[in-house]
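Extended Data, panel c. Modelled sequence:
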Amino acid sequence: MIFQLDDKLCFPDPTLADDDGCLAVGGDLSVDRLLLAYQHGIFPWYSFRYHDEPVWYCPHQRFVIFPSEIHVSHSMRTLMNKRLYSFSINCDFEGVIHECSRLRIEENGAWLGKDMIEAYTELHRQGFAASVEVWDENKKLVGGLYGVNIGKAFFGESMFSLVPSGSKLALIFLARTLERLGGVLIDCQLETAHLRSMGGRFISYEEYMQLISDNS
């Protein structure tokens, strides 16, 4: 069963999501609703071309990377040792989110449209969303990622690369930074071969929520 949301700031029991993780439709992308969603493992994901209102997901199994378990391959270590790139956090959030959108905007299922960009940019302005930037030797933005940060958890949203392995470099930098600062997990939302190769694995929703609630 997929629930219809209204203006009331609440969500149905996340464990009632269907087998694909779809839980609800409707509501808005306000800061308060987004924060409430992420605190319960819920996130918006929908094609803006085909849906007039947000669709909310909460997968029963959560695909995450624990910062201490980030896998850095030999080829990535070799690339990093060349010191071709520099890294930063929150130096160009808008640049990162617009690049993430631009590289996928022509896809039929593109979800990072104007409303989502505005919503997450506002989250960033209020201190609840962050970006990682990768810069080349000419100070050009060539890779990065962004997501929501609540407590000691980082909820990844999207990443991009304009150079080979640009997004991998951003993820490694994020994981190492979180580990140093006591971060407990990176929520990848959906499994991909790319993320699995870097240490992503599934945990139960119960374990996931325990980690979030204990570290918020």
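The longest strand covers residues 141-150. This feature is highlighted in the accompanying rendering.
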